[in-house]
């Protein structure tokens, strides 16, 4: 479904991504982790087609690929109510019956503890955590074949984060759609993915099934991230 071959990206001769080779299959849940500056978000932008590689190839076999970005205030039009923003997304990206979308929206609101009354508010009239949940809902209700989540839990408290984690896993189980999680938070990523890719300074340094996270042969940088996160993997 996703095939990147010898992919490089430069800005003013500065290498942001270096010789990325990556294959992701339909239905995979993949975490791409690393510290700030590792190249994670740049990779997401390349996958979305926002920017083009300097060299190498990018092949994606999917009709719809949508993001959930980190900063919800930047993702919503402040001249629109939240409902109007959701309606706009449906007009641009969905060919499904409106009744199906409305039913899906209702289920997602219930799953994320959001009241329908909030739909009539403007983005700056709800909390950051509520707006991020609407940000997540906006993409999930369209059921894209590939979903790219960029630091989506940064505005969520622990309880809501757990609910979002369960919702995303259920979404994947129901649809077998591909999901990529861009994050520095190994603790969250390890709860929702089957495969973990570790990036450092624009390169992939580790790539393994989630169940092998604590193997002794993990890259030194992966081990350092583990020590920083102090996480426990849920089997």
From TrEMBL:
Q: Name one GO biological process term.
A: transmembrane transport
Per UniProt, the keywords (alphabetical) are: ATP-binding, Nucleotide-binding, Transport
Any keyword Nucleotide-binding?
Answer: yes
- A Pfam family annotated for this chain is ABC_tran
Q: Which GO terms describe its molecular function?
A: ATP binding; ATP hydrolysis activity
Which residue range or ranges hold the ABC transporter domain?
Answer: 2-226
User: Which SUPFAM superfamilies does this one have?
Assistant: P-loop containing nucleoside triphosphate hydrolases
What domain of life is recorded for the organism? Bacteria
Matching Gene3D superfamilies = P-loop containing nucleotide triphosphate hydrolases
Q: Which PANTHER family would you find in this protein's record?
A: ABC TRANSPORTER, ATP-BINDING PROTEIN, TRANSPORT ATP-BINDING PROTEIN
Q: What is this protein called?
A: Peptide ABC transporter ATP-binding protein
Task: Report the source organism.
Answer: Staphylococcus kloosii
């Amino acid at each position: 479904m996703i095939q990147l071959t010898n992919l490089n990206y430069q800005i003013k001769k500065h290498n942001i991504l270096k010789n990325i080779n990556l294959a992701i299959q339909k239905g995979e849940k993949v975490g791409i982790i690393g510290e700030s500056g590792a190249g994670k978000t740049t990779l997401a932008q390349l996958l979305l087609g926002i920017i083009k590689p300097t060299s190498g190839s990018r092949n994606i076999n999917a009709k719809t690929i949508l993001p959930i970005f980190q900063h919800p205030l930047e993702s919503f039009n402040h001249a629109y109510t939240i409902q109007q923003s959701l309606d706009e997304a449906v007009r641009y990206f969905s060919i499904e019956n409106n009744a199906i979308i409305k039913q899906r929206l209702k289920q997602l609101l219930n799953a994320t503890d959001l009241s329908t009354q909030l739909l009539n508010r403007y983005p700056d009239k709800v909390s950051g955590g509520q707006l991020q949940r609407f940000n997540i809902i906006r993409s999930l209700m369209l059921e894209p074949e590939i979903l790219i989540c960029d630091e989506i839990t940064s505005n969520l408290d622990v309880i809501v984060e757990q609910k979002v984690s369960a919702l995303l896993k259920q979404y994947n189980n129901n649809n077998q759609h591909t999901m990529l999680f861009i994050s520095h938070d190994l603790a969250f990523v390890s709860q929702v993915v089957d495969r973990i890719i570790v990036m450092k300074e624009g390169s992939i340094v580790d790539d393994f099934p989630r169940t092998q996270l604590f193997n002794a042969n993990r890259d030194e940088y992966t081990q350092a991230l583990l020590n920083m996160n102090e996480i426990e993997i849920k089997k």
